[in-house]
Specification:
250 residues, Endonuclease, Chain A, 7-stranded mixed β-sheet, 11 helices, 44% helix
Length: 250
């Protein structure tokens, strides 16, 4: 390709490995040599302009970047203090969660839920990413939808292919939650979201702080077997004299 474009091979390698930003002229030459048309170039250019930014902010409705980040990751580690991670949600739980938020038009919810469930297909691949999900017990104690939905959701977590670690209810973790995607041949990406924006970060300092959070969670969370036992309590059928959510004895 370098010979075809008249480039030095080192330039070709540098651009392909993301070590330097290609100019628009370089992109035109490269994509034309690959047989791409002007429409493809315009779409690629808009995405490429953020390729070297350490912080990228997107509106909450933009889920394409997240889906791509998940699909190409080798290791996914997450912590959520308020809800079950998207890659582990049941369809009913996701639907009820979106309806509780009130930020999405009701007619759009089924489509968004379907897309969220479709994202979970990466966990069925033979080369699926290794996943470690830290979930605060408070997320299990609050009722999203109704008791049946919550029990089904806890059952899904109990048999989920990811490693689930429960942070006990009495443990205070001063974090709003985050995700760390790690790749075989690319820099890791940290992700956080609010009701207003999604933020993708490659800043080394931010990545280091994210790793410190997960190191702390590893110390305070239940281990995998203890977490399974805790989840089993939430799946157990309620006693007749029990009136409220929380751990239920088998």
């Amino acid at each position: 390709m370098a010979i075809r474009l008249g480039w030095d091979p080192s330039k070709m390698s540098t651009i392909e490995h993301g070590k330097a930003r290609a100019s628009e002229i370089d992109l035109i030459q490269f994509l034309t040599a690959c047989g791409k048309d002007v429409d493809f170039f315009e779409e690629f250019r808009l995405r490429y302009k953020n390729a070297f930014d350490e912080y990228i902010v997107q509106v909450p409705d933009n889920t394409r970047t997240m889906a791509l980040a998940e699909a190409t990751a080798k290791l996914i580690t997450s912590y959520d203090p308020r809800s079950v991670p998207g890659l582990a949600q049941s369809a009913d739980y996701a639907d009820a969660l979106y309806r509780l938020g009130g930020f999405i038009a009701e007619e759009r919810i089924p489509t968004i839920v379907r897309f969220r469930i479709e994202r979970q297909a990466i966990l069925n691949r033979h080369d699926r990413p290794t996943c470690l999900f830290y979930i605060h017990e408070h997320a299990l104690q609050q009722t999203v939808g109704d008791d049946r939905i919550m029990e089904d959701q806890c059952a899904k977590l109990l048999f989920h292919p990811a490693e689930i670690r429960i942070v006990p209810a009495h443990v205070v973790v001063p974090s709003s939650g985050c995700v760390l995607w790690e790749y075989e041949k690319a820099y890791p990406v940290a992700f956080g979201e609010t009701d207003l924006a999604k933020v993708f970060v490659q800043d080394p300092g931010a990545i280091a702080r994210t790793r410190l959070l997960f190191e702390h969670l590893d110390e305070v969370a239940l281990d995998a077997e203890q977490s399974r036992s805790k989840l089993a309590e939430y799946v157990s059928p309620p006693r007749e004299d029990f009136h409220g959510r929380g751990p239920r004895l088998a």
